[in-house]
Amino acid sequence: PVMVWIRGGGLGSGSGSEALYDGGFLAARCGVVVVTIHYRLGMFGFGSPGDAARSAWGAKANTGLLDQVEALRWVQGNIRAFGGDPGNVTVFGESAGSAAVACLLTMPAARGLFHKAIMQSGAGNPAAYEAMAERSGAVFGSIGVDPADANLIRSLAPEALVRAGQESESGTRGYGLTLDPETLPGPPMSGEGRVDVPLLIGTNRDESRLFNVFRGRPELGDAELVAGVGALCAVQPDEASSILRTFRDSRAQAGLGTDNHALYDAVATVRCVSSAVGSLRRSASCPGVSVSV
């Protein structure tokens, strides 16, 4: 069996070759062939230059998703050489990678390229094409570029477009998943155009802790913990303290860690998961999928 991993990173950071995503452990333990991939990020992968650029030089929305489709095509053509079965391919991803898996389920270009899917802690909520084109256009405009001018865009230093895409003059990122009749015609999880493959959806219990432990972190005092949870949940210190008491009691009963870092990570995880579940519930009903918290 083949498992194709699509990592997270908010569509704007990270790399498929990070040590965090070494597929060797999974391959050795479970007898599968693991493929990890790169895909374009930020304005390069998820900027949407709009209709003028599409007409002028063939610009597309969701090019990062199209990179993932190309990777799946590569798997179909080459994975036998690595001992993999091209007829038994599972795509799986976490956070933004999970949202990407949801998109692949509805993308016409991805049909037939995988046979099972796993979504971990993310569902995706693409913006309307016109809205994303306007946001991306504002980013190009902030550096004096017409999105329809392909030659000028090619002459830019890549770093200039990265910086511009991270934060436009309006303070809004100019990139993201985009509903687009050519690349992503329907909302993920809506059931509209969704490929009929087995689908496993879940959330990771220690979603936030994984990244924080991997990157290292300083000590976290009691006052800093209360302040951090207050900022995370947009609540006053008294309410933050109440939230922490609830989490401390719940984790103690479950035999889980209750140190300050563990508590902060637990709150951050639930905060992240709640957003993902909300995205699922805002979508139209998806046949065969139930969501419970």
Provide structural commentary:
It contains 12 helices and 5 strands. The protein starts with a strand and ends in an 11-residue tail after the last helix. Helix 10 packs parallel to helix 12. The chain is globular. Helices cover 46% and strands 8% of the residues.
Shape: globular
Q: What's the order of the H and E elements? A: EHEHHHEHEHHHEHHHH
Q: Which ranges are low-confidence, i.e. pLDDT below 50, for 5 or more consecutive residues?
A: 279-293
The whole-angstrom Rg is: 21 Å
Tell me roughly what share of residues is in helical segments: 40-55%
The neighbouring-strand order within the major sheet is 2-1-3-4-5
Distance between the termini: 31 Å
Number of helices: 12
Give the DSSP E fraction (strand runs of 2 or more residues). 5-15%
Q: Let me know the average pLDDT.
A: 85
The assigned structural class equals alpha/beta
Largest sheet: 5 strands, parallel
- Kindly state the number of beta strands: 5
How would you sum up this structure in a few lines?
By secondary structure, this protein is α/β, with parallel strands linked by helices.
